[in-house]
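Researcher: Please predict.
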Amino acid sequence: MPELKRLHADHASAVLNFELANRTYFAASISDRGDEFFDQFPDRYSAALAEQEADVCAFYVLVADDGSVLGRFNLYDLENGTARLGYRVAEQAAGRGVATATVRELCRIAAARHGLRNLRAATSDDNVASRKVLTKAGFVPVGPAAPAALGGKSGTWYQRDLQT
């Protein structure tokens, strides 16, 4: 049974494998991270752990029984009871409710562990799967997302009140 775990230094190789194995799949619906992301992965990973340690962000990975990463679920810019949600799920786990169930679990964790009251997430208009995940997880559309927030694509901001 996959388990949602707080990102740890020991997850680095599994996270890199996840990103590399799913790069083409992700690029079909969201902007590609680019070669620079992979070239600088160790430094970026260390920086993410430092941001997490400083309580600026909270990063989670969905780990399969074999230790592989099935998804990344991140809370960015934790401030004043709010944060932005970002997530990506491996192609092999897509379409089976994994993202929806994990986003729901992260909403619970966001309130209980991080004291958050509200989450926001943006998705491009052409990312139907992500829009469905957010809606099924209790998010509601609250307005347009600028292309700058979505790698040049137009989209929508969604929001969820965690206190209801």
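Model: The mean pLDDT is 93.
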